[in-house]
Specification:
By secondary structure, the chain is an alpha+beta fold. About 45% of the residues lie in helices and about 20% in strands. The protein has an 8-stranded mixed β-sheet. The chain has a 6-stranded mixed β-sheet with strand order 2-6-9-10-11-12, sandwiched between helices. Helix 13 (about 400-420) crosses helix 15 and helix 21 crosses helix 25 (about 705-725). The longest helix has about 40 residues, at about 605-645. It is elongated and about 120 Å long.
């Protein structure tokens, strides 16, 4: 390394507390002369304090600065003893030649160089150039830092690329992995923000484990006395180790990282607090931490056990000796006991206490996950959503196609959740995440809908597949590819038809991107696939692109239906919860498709239409009766106010023929009531037409169409009322009920 290359802008962590308070905020502040306030408010600044000469202003940070500050704050909370300053670090390579580095952090063993790419909306960027640049920066920073290192203890320096609403290709991601560069997207950054708040400095080793995956680290040489034995045919080591040392090499495979093969839930802050209090009170742990040592390819890790001399009375299967742990981050995967270990993070007794460890060597991912489930099923129940996440790990290589289908479904949804261009990006909530307005789709709920007969399996018998569905291609990898393509095409087309509703998630004005809406969308997809199969017996043999293209016209119908939905139509669906909610949405969508494709008639649709009409007869009758009564009261109130009470006033303003018919009906009645009680709904139309100006604000629909057009709704309501009053109501149709509801809401908005 040339003596002209220097790394500038690095400070000890102890001197950066003030900057951390600034960086950890979502807003930025500044002080300006009062006379300049107008210039700043035009740029989005808001006054929080105005003095005689100076004003204090605040505004949200722009996305670039916000993301840089967030990752820097994570590194600070991880306890890196050396970090870059507010404006990043500078790699100076000579007079006038320098590179700006977004963030740099390091300790005595390793360091990281960070580059951030952020955007307000999802975009594709050139990942190759970023990888080349950060690789060069890492090489130079490594040489600068190791000029200071003691001989034989050289630091590792790796790269981190933070992509906020920015996407690179899978090929570029693979290139980054091969170059030992960690890529963090939105969810990954949020994961580390949550993790570091829970476990503090120990989160540093989780991050470094990802950056330096399967690489030897000079400062991590650990040798411990141990007992070697066998359990279930597996080598097992039992030893005691200070928590501070185990934390450096341990790795918790959190589901929140959404990596294939992980199984643990995110640590719980309340449990960590209770365990720390237990440690403070001198408590001891009677059960062992369970870990697995494994290599990068899942085989044995390379731990070395030097057996000591046999002891008198010992058995040949149990040996005492020295265990040489792999000098790598992430060499000991925690299967059970993450809370007990992580509670020691930053604790005053972390280096002086001991934890007992049971360590396996070379368990594959499925065995680790299976052991985790067995241990936890007898302690804390593993949630259904968590188990659904694990299906991809547990059953990917299963010989049972039914279990493989569940694994494919689980992995496809978790992959789409990470894909920035997928409609499911950041929409599926995992077991250890908090639900939000948009992150509101439950993995287990959606998986159950997908594995229902029709897509992957058409028929099964006694736990085996009798006939596969059109999404099954014959092997798990190509079936996974087809599944993700179909789900992306179907729901992306729906999203395009109702973008605002999709963006609303479970918030006001949303339904389509909720559990109810997505499950209904999957049900309709299943009916559409069956419809297409009935017209093309070779559908399953079509290539993925052709298969997806055939779905698009039907998805457009669904998306446009949601996009045109009024608030009055949406509200009943949002208020409908329980197991029947997705079915109601499903059949509405199916009916909409049938209105365009008359031969589309999935089993159950006609029954639903008939039952729905029957159920609405009494409701429609009550609705039209209420409408008629309110029209009666409104017409009489306005006429009496305008022309006076009594038959000599307002009554004379009613057309003669209507008055005569009302008198005749009263004469024929055995009980005599006031004459206005013998007016009927269709009479009010003629009365309103005779006095248009009087009733314009209450009973005239629309702005054009003349008196006949603007009062024709009364004829429709009268006809609907007659249908609902029929002995069986069999003539009533669903559109009649919808029309009555629409008129009812309109009248109420006019105070009728």
């Amino acid at each position: 390394m040339s003596k002209h290359v220097h790394l500038e802008g690095i400070k000890e962590r102890a001197h950066l507390a003030t900057y951390f308070r600034t960086a950890s905020k979502s807003t930025e502040e500044t002080s300006v002369p009062v006379r300049q306030m107008a210039d700043f408010t035009e740029k989005g600044w808001q006054a929080i304090r105005v003095g005689k000469h100076k004003a204090r202003l605040r505004r949200p940070k722009d996305v670039d600065k916000s993301v840089e500050h967030r990752i820097w704050s994570v590194l600070y909370l991880m306890g890196f003893p050396y970090l870059s300053v507010e404006d990043g670090a500078i790699l100076r390579q000579g007079p006038g030649i320098h590179n700006q580095l977004d963030a740099v952090a390091y300790d005595s063993e390793a360091g990281v160089v960070v580059e951030c790419k952020a955007s307000n909306s999802t975009r594709r960027i050139d990942g190759q150039s970023i990888i080349n640049r950060i690789t060069d920066h890492c090489n130079k920073v490594r040489e600068v830092l190791n000029e200071e290192s003691t001989k034989g203890n050289r630091r590792k320096v790796g790269g981190i690329i933070v992509l906020w609403n920015s996407a690179i290709t899978e090929t570029e991601r693979e290139r980054a992995r091969q170059s030992h560069i960690l890529v963090l997207d939105n969810a990954s950054l949020e994961y580390y923000e949550r993790l570091v708040k829970h476990i503090g400095f120990a989160a540093r080793y989780q991050l470094l484990a990802e950056v330096f995956h399967n690489q030897g680290i000079d400062g991590l040489v650990l040798n411990v006395p141990a007992v070697k034995s066998t359990m279930g045919g597996e080598d097992v080591y039992t030893f005691a180790i200070p928590p501070a040392q185990l934390l450096k090499v341990a790795y918790v495979a959190h589901r929140a990282r959404n990596d294939f093969g992980t199984y643990q839930r995110m640590v719980t802050a309340s449990r960590l607090k209770k365990i720390r209090e237990f440690i403070d009170d001198g408590g001891i742990f009677p059960t062992n931490i369970v870990v697995n040592f494994a290599s990068d390819n899942g085989g044995r890790s390379g731990v070395r056990f030097d057996a000591g001399p046999a002891m008198q009375g010992s058995t040949s299967s149990v040996k005492l000796g020295i265990l040489h742990l792999p000098a790598k981050y992430q060499s000991a995967w925690i299967i059970d006991g993450q809370h007990r270990l992580l509670a020691f993070s930053g604790h005053k007794w972390a280096a002086s206490s001991s934890l007992c460890v049971t360590a396996f060597d070379g368990l594959d991912e499925s065995k680790q996950a299976e052991l985790f489930v067995r241990i936890n099923s007898e302690q804390h129940k593993v949630s259904a959503n968590h188990l659904t996440e694990l299906f991809a790990t547990l059953n990917w290589s299963s010989g049972n196609p039914l279990l493989q289908v569940q694994a494919i479904i689980s992995k496809s949804l978790q992959d789409l959740r990470k894909d920035p261009v997928s409609p499911f990006f950041e929409r599926i909530v995992l077991a250890d995440e908090e639900k939000s307005q948009t992150r509101c789709l439950t993995l287990q709920y959606i998986s159950t809908a997908l594995k229902s007969p029709g897509l992957f399996v058409l028929a099964e018998q006694k736990g085996s597949v009798r006939q596969f569905g059109p999404l099954w291609t014959g092997d798990v990898d190509s079936t996974l590819t087809r599944t993700k393509g179909v789900l992306n095409t179907w729901f992306d087309t729906i999203r395009n038809g109702c973008p605002t509703m999709w963006d609303n998630g479970d918030g006001s004005g949303g339904i389509v991107a909720t559990n109810r809406g997505v499950v209904a969308g999957i049900s309709v997809l299943r009916h559409v696939v069956e419809y297409l199969r009935s017209r093309d017996a070779d559908l399953a043999l079509r290539n993925d692109r052709d298969f997806c293209d055939r779905l698009v016209p039907f998805a457009e119908i669904v998306g446009n239906y949601f996009g045109a939905m009024s608030e009055a139509e949406l509200q009943p669906l949002r208020s409908h919860y329980g197991s029947g909610a997705p079915a109601e949405i499903t059949w509405r969508l199916a009916a909409q498709i049938q209105s365009i494709h008359q031969d589309f008639s999935p089993i159950g649709l006609e029954k639903w239409k008939a039952e729905r009409a029957d159920a609405k007869v009494s409701e429609t009758h009550s609705l039209t009766t209420s409408i008629e009564r309110r029209i009666h009261n409104t017409v009489l109130e306005i006429l009496k106010r305008e022309f006076g009470d009594g038959e000599g006033g307002w009554w004379r303003e009613i057309p003669l023929k209507i008055r005569q018919d009302a008198h005749n009906r009263r004469e024929a009645d055995m009980e005599v009531h006031p004459v206005e009680m013998y007016l009927n709904l269709i009479n009010y139309r003629e009365i309103v037409a005779a006095h248009l100006q009087l009733f314009a604000d209450h009973l005239l629909l629309g702005k054009t169409g003349g008196k006949d057009g603007r009062t024709s709704w009364m004829v429709e309501i009268n006809d609907i009322r007659n249908k609902a009053s029929h002995a069986s109501g069999s003539r009533l149709k669903m559109q009649d009920y919808e029309k009555a509801k629409e008129v009812d809401l309109w009248l109420r908005s006019n105070d009728v």
